[in-house]
Amino acid sequence: MERNLTHIALFAALIAVLGLIPKIDLAAGVPITAQSLGIMLCGTVLGAKRGALAVVLFLALVALGLPLLAGGRGGLGVFAGPSVGYLVGFPIAAFVAGWIMERTSLATAVAATAASVIGGIGVLYVFGIIGMSVMLDKTLSEAAFLGMAYLPGDVVKAVIAGLVTQSLARMRPASLLSRA
Amino acid sequence: MLTLTSPVDAWAHRFRAGAKLAALAVVTTGLFLIKTPLPLTIAVATTVVLYASCGAIFASAGLRLLRPLWPFILIVGLWHLWTGELAAGAAVLLRMIAAVALANFVTMTTRLSDMLDIFQRLARPLQVFGLSPRLIGLAVALVIRFIPVMLERVTLITQSWSARSVRRPRWRVLVPATLAALDDADRVAEALRARGGAG
């Protein structure tokens, strides 16, 4: 009970911290924030349920009025803006990534990268694109065109999520709750 | 850590948080039902008056919060100039600005503790799943407490890497940072249990 609570809370904090560290530090020359990487890690490390709850907790803090989204955004306004689909998709992306992680017997790095691509990109983009299409009154294909701008950065992040998850599994096998 | 609540003491701070949230929900639903630009222009104008009534410092802070919207304004604006559907484009942009600005207004005039009270009250039905309001409050407090702790640790990890290597650490800082988060989670869980548990 306590352990579940603290894991969820600490990973919610991790998502926030990843949104606050400078963009450029992550990979050579690609200006990306690490926030969606945090979403992927929640799934691949904590597993489906705990991962999704950590993301929900993070979003609750954003809604409470803390500027924790990348770029210092926050408050209720972000839930009324055009990117709301991505916010709705965040916990579901973490859940799907965790679910895949729990059910494959592939090598950790491969499984975590695949889970991050399917959950953190595939599922997340479906929600994000539907959200933009509704909020900006565009067709789905027009909204999808807008959403593709983030694809290269997100693929890099999925690979990094896979590498980080694998390193954690090697250093401390018990720490990977998704595979426990 | 700083919240988005405005330190400027405006009249709207004195309204009850629940009333402001309920009004926001009604108005936002209304905005999405309106399809023509004229009533939406009135909505934006009313929002501007609302911000202006709280003073210049408050209004400029509110304007800063709208800055992330400009890429959308640019893209949607250009798109509708190109297709010629100007009225539809104006409606989309006016609705977006009004909806986001009004939601920000509620955030800016409501204290974090009041907002948390509302959240805990709204989450009361979740108690059947074992999610008590007390547990939610504890989780929120833990996150707020650990964000600065983790930020400082990421800085420390980056510095100690730089002391040993001329190359930049990049994503590799994430491994010790995540591991430390997992360790902290275990220790805090033990500490909570030693003090009578979280439930």
How does this structure look, described?
The complex is a heterodimer of chains A (180) and B (199). With 180 residues, chain A is an all-alpha fold. Chain A has a single domain, classed as Arp2/3 complex 21 kDa subunit ARPC3, CATH 1.10.1760.20. Chain A contains seven helices and no strands. The two termini of chain A are 16 Å apart. The model of chain A has no long low-confidence stretch (mean pLDDT 90). Chain B is mostly helical. Chain B has two domains: 11-111, no CATH class; 124-194, no CATH class. Helices cover 72% and strands 0% of the residues of chain B. Chain B is built from eight helices and no strands. In chain B, helix 2 (37-52) runs parallel beside helix 5, helix 4 packs antiparallel against helix 5 (86-108) and helix 6 (112-122) crosses helix 7. The longest helix of chain B is centred in the last third of the chain and has 32 residues, at 133-164. Chain B is extended. At the A-B interface, helix 1, helix 2, helix 3 and helix 7 of A face helix 4, helix 5, helix 6, helix 7 and helix 8 of B.
Distance between the termini of chain A: 16 Å
Number of domains of chain A: 1
Largest sheet of chain B: none
Number of strands of chain B: 0
Query: What is the helical fraction of chain A, as a range of percent?
Result: 55-70%
What general outline of chain B do the C-alpha atoms trace? extended
CATH topology of chain A: Arp2/3 complex 21 kDa subunit ARPC3
**What share of the residues of chain B lie within helices?**
over 70%
Structural class of chain A: mainly alpha
**Poorly predicted spans of chain A:** none
Number of domains of chain B: 2
Number of strands of chain A: 0
Reading the helices and strands of chain A in chain order gives HHHHHHH
